[in-house]
């Protein structure tokens, strides 16, 4: 069965010409339908994510009391242990915690304002037990940021936006977070609770998300109005791209944020252990976003929002609080 999620070769857009125009039309079509794209031609050396995964597996294999030295709350930099997040709660409903653990890092471009920097640019924390994680993760994020800038420029071109109104113009000091998500096997976590997922159904919060994922029976699913929930298409040469709530708002609803979930570990694959590398891109923390009106945007008259405030509200919604 064909998927509404299209595959585009970003190198064609970088070269320009007729192929670039056709690619822009495909981007607009896929994002209107599903909020997702597969992107090839990105130029990321596959050895880098492979090496990063290997280092991350060495960290996640450490005893919990060792990993806890690097434990942080949701939104922090370091290890976010099991039971800390419930992404399905973002819409206000109560859901069981996600069946995952995470190691993350984030943007290191402080402003000099201690309040702003504590919220958006806290220092990264690196485990002494796996020293290579620092260099590998830092380089991976550097390349993901460059790609994310290209994606914002491509998406602006897909809508015919000029330089005064393009998406990239408000990402000069963009905030971002990158997660290494570990989804342990069924044999480790046990039978899921009713309604429990590796990641519950949600949309991301920012502009673009770049996902390097491993396929599996307990893997990524995407929701569309026409097809409901379906397994996301997978291409080992491609990165999976989706847009978040902030870009949906900016486009006046033309591009819905890609709703997705990661299935729980499956009984027919009890030893399946997956790892995803995820780069969440945003904008400058103080960027003011005014939704595009018709004919580009699908809605009119929506008020402007401040990017950082918009995202922080959503982060708070998915944080599991002790009862």
Can you name the CATH architecture?
Sandwich
Low-confidence stretches: none
Number of H- or I-type helical stretches = 9
Tell the overall outline: globular
The first-to-last residue Cα distance is: 45 Å
Average pLDDT rating: 93
The helix/strand series, from N terminus to C terminus, equals EHHEHHEEHHEHEEEEEHEEEEH
- Supply the CATH superfamily name: B-lactam Antibiotic, Isopenicillin N Synthase, Chain
* Total beta-strand segments: 14
Report the portion of residues in β strands.
Answer: 15-25%
| Major beta-sheet overview | 8 strands, mixed
CATH topology: Jelly Rolls
Share of helix, binned: 25-40%
Structural class: alpha+beta
Radius of gyration: 19 Å
GO molecular function: dioxygenase activity; metal ion binding
Keywords: Antibiotic biosynthesis, Dioxygenase, Iron, Metal-binding, Oxidoreductase
Pathway: Antibiotic biosynthesis
Family: Belongs to the iron/ascorbate-dependent oxidoreductase family.
């Amino acid at each position: 069965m064909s998927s509404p999620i299209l595959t585009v070769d970003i190198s064609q857009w970088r070269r320009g010409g007729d192929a670039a125009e056709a690619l822009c039309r495909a981007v607009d079509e896929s994002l209107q339908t599903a909020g997702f794209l597969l992107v090839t031609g990105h130029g990321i050396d596959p050895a880098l994510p492979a090496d990063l995964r290997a280092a991350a597996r060495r960290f996640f294999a450490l005893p919990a009391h060792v990993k806890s030295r690097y434990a942080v709350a949701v939104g922090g930099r370091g290890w976010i242990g099991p039971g800390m997040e419930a992404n399905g709660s973002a819409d206000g409903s109560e859901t069981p915690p996600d069946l995952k653990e995470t190691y993350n890092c984030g943007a290191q471009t402080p402003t000099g304002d201690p309040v702003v920097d504590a919220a958006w640019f806290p220092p990264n924390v690196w485990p002494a037990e796996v020293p290579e994680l620092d260099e590998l993760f830092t380089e991976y994020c550097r390349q993901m940021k460059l790609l994310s800038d290209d994606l914002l420029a491509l998406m602006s071109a897909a809508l015919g936006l000029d330089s005064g109104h393009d998406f990239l113009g408000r990402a000069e000091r963009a905030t971002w977070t990158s997660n290494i998500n570990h989804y342990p096997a069924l044999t480790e976590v046990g039978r899921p609770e009713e309604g429990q997922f590796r990641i519950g159904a949600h949309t991301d919060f920012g502009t673009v998300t770049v996902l390097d994922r491993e396929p599996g029976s307990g893997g990524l699913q995407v929701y569309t109005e026409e097809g409901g929930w379906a397994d996301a298409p997978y291409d080992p040469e491609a990165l999976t791209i989706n847009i978040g709530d902030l870009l949906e708002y900016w486009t006046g609803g033309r591009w819905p944020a890609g709703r997705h979930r990661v299935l729980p570990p499956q009984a027919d694959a009890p030893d399946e252990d997956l790892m995803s590398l995820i780069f969440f891109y945003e904008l400058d923390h103080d960027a003011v976003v005014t939704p595009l009106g018709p004919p580009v945007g699908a809605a009119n008259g929506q008020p402007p929002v401040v990017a950082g405030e918009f995202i922080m509200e959503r982060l708070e919604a998915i944080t599991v609080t002790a009862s």
